[in-house]
């Protein structure tokens, strides 16, 4: 009887210990640029600021839009990462005839790699965005608000590109 009580006691302690450790704040100070990003990227002009796609037929195929991205500073800026708010949206950045691959939403353990694309002082590039209205299946009809995030370094910041619309059957 005593070994059973000891086993149960140890098991309960292990479970509570695990729960305690999972609830603990694991915030750490990192030296990476990504951990230092605070707020909106400065010195970046986006045109247009938002696209209203209107009604988007669910079976109408991919919708592609472009955003002009201009470096209004007097120094080179670097795009470190491109991510999106949903798996139905992919984005790429192009400048000087060179383009990145299309990147999507991070999650489920996936992380988009660094792109390290330079935008020279006064230079203009473009972000190409592809939205798949059928990505969520037939139940995906209705209003959508999506974002693309360009993460910059030196100075650090994030520029959010937005679009909205209504997916219709």
TrEMBL record:
It comes from Candidatus Woesebacteria bacterium RIFCSPHIGHO2_02_FULL_39_13. This is DUF1573 domain-containing protein. InterPro entries: DUF1573, Ig-like_fold. It holds the Pfam family DUF1573. Gene3D superfamilies: Immunoglobulins.
């Amino acid at each position: 009887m005593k070994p059973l009580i000891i086993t149960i006691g140890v098991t309960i302690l292990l479970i509570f210990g695990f729960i305690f450790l999972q609830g603990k704040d694991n915030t750490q100070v990192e030296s990476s640029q990504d951990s230092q990003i605070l707020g909106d990227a400065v010195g970046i002009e986006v045109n247009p600021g938002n696209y209203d796609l209107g009604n988007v037929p669910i079976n109408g195929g991919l919708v592609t839009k472009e955003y002009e991205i201009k470096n209004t500073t007097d120094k080179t800026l670097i795009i470190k990462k491109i991510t999106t708010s949903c798996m139905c949206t992919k984005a790429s950045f192009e400048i000087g005839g060179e383009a990145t691959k299309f990147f999507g939403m991070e999650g489920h353990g996936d992380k988009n790699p660094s792109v390290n694309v330079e935008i020279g002082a006064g230079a203009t590039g473009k972000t190409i965005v592809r939205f798949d209205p059928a990505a969520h299946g037939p139940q995906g009809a209705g209003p959508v608000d999506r974002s693309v995030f360009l993460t910059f370094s030196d100075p650090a910041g994030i520029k959010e590109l937005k679009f909205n619309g209504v997916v219709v059957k």
